[in-house]
Amino acid sequence: MRWVERVATFCVEEWGLAPITGRVLVGVMICDHPSSPRGRSPRRSAPAARPWHKVVQRKLDSLSAFGDIAEDGFAIAGDSGPRTTRIKAAQESLTWLRDIAARNPPQR
Fold first, then answer.
1. pLDDT tens, 50-84?
2. How many structural domains does the chain have?
3. What is the pTM of this model?
4. Which structural domain range is residue 104 located in?
5. Beta strands in 16-84, from DSSP E residues, in sequence order
């Protein structure tokens, strides 16, 4: 049970999601797929991993939307200064992460 709450806390602190997201994620990772008897190899229980992939993919897809948000921030903060620098750093970091995900799609 402690691990379940660690995963829930991670989802809250790192991804800004509700704790239930982490608890559901644990269920997806730990529980056997209803059509898979216990003891089957992990490859055969791959369908249970798909919801996890979808959660992560949605988060990665949303990184593209931050570009527009950052542009609005530049309009407010101006062309230079510490605020602009912080917005630019966030934009570059999220673009970098988005690009890594695009270059390394999940294996199906």
1. 666 777 777 777 777 777 788 888 888 888 888 88
2. 2
3. 0.49
4. 63-108
5. none
